[in-house]
Amino acid sequence: QGYDFGLIGLGVMGRNFILNVADNGFKAFGYDLDPEKVKALQEEGGDLDRVNATDNLKTFITALEQPRKIMLLVPAGKIVDNVIEDLLPHIDQGDLIIDGGNSLFTDTDTRESYLREKGIHFFGAGVSGGAKGARKGPSIMPGGSREAYQEVKPIFEAVAAKYKGEPCVAYLGPKSAGNYVKMVHNGIEYGLMQLTSEIYDLLRKAGDMTNEEMHRLFDTWNKGRLQSFLVEITADILSKDDEHGPGQLVDKILDKAKQKGTGKWTSQNAMDLGIPVPSIDIAVSMREISALKTDRIKAEKLYGRPLPGKLDKAELEKMAEEALYFSFVITYAQGLHQLAEASEEYGYDLELGTIAKIWRAGCIIRAALLADIARAYQNDPGLSNLLLDASFASDIKDTLSSVRSLVAYGASHGIPLPGLSNSLTYFDAYTSGRLPLNLIQAQRDYFGSHTYERTDKEGIFHTEWED
Ligand code: 6PG
């Protein structure tokens, strides 16, 4: 009997994912050009009848049960196309190729239609949860043909993380729906990470808190409504001692954050769709500003830094919890709004409640909050923005004064809190029945005869502004 599942790319993610498949009772076969990686998997898997691997493509293809289910866990970009071209002469109509990487959704669309013409099913399936998630249960976001999904559904449901017994995977929609949802997941991830870093900065600068104190605070928060993977790992990070000297490792890490592009793609595409996601945009910009280390040091010498005034610690802790909750909600709200628009624009037919559900465990943005978000969309699948949900509205109202105080504190003491302030600004603008953009319309009409509408009459108007 052949193997149920094939996996190409036996790096850390691939090796962990295939072992997870095998642990769940499916026979799995891996392929990698590097014989060392093949050997490592064979050794770790133990029983070759359960999990095996090869560096020979033909051996790999013939080992698989038909229709073949072949997952790619290789770096996004040209490599995916190369692997597809290598596979094509050997596979058969009806076989299924699943790209588990962070591929750009437009690339997935191109690949899907190219392969559909050849009778091959192609899936873009976002996989979140890092190496540990791949091994113990990731959140999986598949998109492609609904019928073909049935072939792989039992395997994905078995290997995915479970939230109260429910697998964190679901068929999301046609074409690139899976990669798109994973892209926005990552945009939200960027936003939440930026916000967490700002709160950490406030606690140490305004509250003089030590890493140990912050560790305890994040740990406490992780038992409340802020319970989430990112808050949990922040608590861990803050208590990690530096092996090379006194103190904690976090203080020795260079303050330049790298990026592989998914956050930027989220922002770029949000602009294309005309959906505001400023909490995500600024998180991308902050990684870019962080890269300008040499200039930042010069500029600090030139301009100096204002001295932070101190805040009462107990009060600061309370305000910080509220501000983090507020801005997390706003960031999810923006990402979900983008998904709602993309669903219309690209015909994905996404169910936002289902997406929130499969994000409740396994993925990087998993959080207690997502159970409430899932409920909000289940109560009203057509909810245009999470901020319009009554139960979120009441929590948001309770946190607002803390957010305002902290953003004002940051502004007057020179502590950059762009994620918090963009979240607050988004909220203030979104909840303003009237914005000053009437003036912009007047200016546009003044210099370019671009016309305007009126509040008191129907129609399109133009005025000769200069007498
Ligand atoms: C996940 C992550 C993962 C990605 C990291 C790094 O969901 O498991 O999103 O897919 O590798 O987020 O992304 P950056 O290098 O862009 O920070």
TrEMBL record:
Gene3D superfamilies: 6-Phosphogluconate Dehydrogenase, domain 3 (1.20.5.320), N-(1-d-carboxylethyl)-l-norvaline Dehydrogenase, domain 2 (1.10.1040.10), NAD(P)-binding Rossmann-like Domain (3.40.50.720). Residues 178-466 form the 6-phosphogluconate dehydrogenase C-terminal domain. Keywords: Gluconate utilization, NADP, Oxidoreductase, Pentose shunt. InterPro entries: 6-PGluconate_DH-like_C_sf, 6PGD_dom2, 6PGDH_C, 6PGDH_Gnd/GntZ, 6PGDH_NADP-bd, NAD(P)-bd_dom_sf, Pgluconate_DH. It holds the Pfam family NAD_binding_2. The keyword Protease does not apply. It catalyses: 6-phospho-D-gluconate + NADP(+) = D-ribulose 5-phosphate + CO2 + NADPH. Catalyzes the oxidative decarboxylation of 6-phosphogluconate to ribulose 5-phosphate and CO(2), with concomitant reduction of NADP to NADPH. Belongs to the 6-phosphogluconate dehydrogenase family. Homodimer. This is 6-phosphogluconate dehydrogenase, decarboxylating. It comes from Muriicola marianensis.
